[in-house]
Amino acid sequence: MAKYIYEYKNWTDFTWQDSDINALFGEVRLRQGKIIGQMNALGFSAKEEATLSALTLDVVKSSEIEGELLNYAQVRSSIARRLGINSAGLVKSSRHIEGIVEMMLDATQRFDAPLTEKRLFGWHAALFPTGYSGPYSIEVGRYRTGEMQVVSGAMGKEKIHYEALKAESVKAEMKKFITWLNKDHSLDPVLKAAIAHFWFIIIHPFDDGNGRIARAITDMLLARAEGSGERFYSMSSQILVERKMYYAILQKVQHSKYDITEWLSWFLNCLKNAMVATEKTTEKILKKSAFWLHHEKTSINERQRKILNLLLDHFEGKLQSSKWAKINKTSTDTALRDIKDLVQKGILRQTNEGGRSVSYELVKKWQVN
User: Fold this and answer.
1) Predicted TM-score (pTM) of this structure
2) For residues 66 and 215, is the Cβ–Cβ distance under 8 A?
3) What pLDDT score does 365 carry?
4) In this model, does residue 211 exceed pLDDT 90?
5) Distance between CA atoms of 100 and 293, rounded to whole angstroms?
6) Where are the domains of the chain?
7) Quick one: which H or E segment has residue 359?
8) Under CATH, to which class is 301-362 assigned?
9) What are phi and psi of 151, to 5 degrees?
10) Fewest CB within 10 A of the end CB: N or C in the chain?
11) Could you tell me if 266 and 21 are in contact, meaning their C-beta atoms sit under 8 angstroms apart?
């Protein structure tokens, strides 16, 4: 069987072909600048909304990669509370979600703080507050003391995808990794994020949560690359979309001898795709911002504001007076008065569909090009 990269002497002396990644690297840096420029042109609240959306997606999707589905509203509420963002309809979050959010915000908001063993252990403890991963008891807030294999398949027919380095080597290897991450300033932080992700995954220092912590380190270094804790795109969302390729490329490059060009190419391409995806989200935020700018002097009550924000974000099904009443916990008469008021103001209009239940939609004349 092919040797693992860590079985070679001085295995972390990674090499790559600049000619293979330069164009892609340049495009990523260009898009990064473009997104930051677009966001800085937004008003404060729209920029806040963009950061809240990106961080929420990052937390939800990073867990989804591991097969865990988190409640979007709880994650969003937890982030909004911690960042002091006034967000309508805040809900209580579970202890587990609070822990995951805590880790992600520590990584992105304190991006300039050095990564230490203590900080990493804190992240790990926040991910597993009960000391369990599912039904299994794990070592929390410390490096693993047992051997680590990444396997799939039914019991007795397991397929080994990866066998991590020996437990007794973990502490020394992590010390080397942490020193490099904090002290080596010779690399561009975007390339550093790619290398750090791969390096950490190869060490696999914890019983569980290695993927999520690797992605948190990636986000921390990308924030460093931009010199800001404001996040406008989600790398984890894109990794989820490209999950099969993510695992395939890791599996291939883990057997390489120093050369990690293929990993860097995949990582930069995935990062580029994450930025392309965010341009669509930005468009939505710009439209929402343009709407409220257009109506800044229009008299709109809280019930109307709540529904309009839902329509501007993502509204399930058709808007009818009964749904309005249900969402706002009010009477149908009040709902109808609210709706008619917005129709008179040219904000809502009745749809052309027939049928017993009348439905309404936004008038789109305020939208940006």
Assistant:
1) 0.83
2) no
3) 67
4) yes
5) 35
6) 5-288, 301-362
7) strand 359-362
8) mainly alpha
9) -125, 160
10) C
11) no
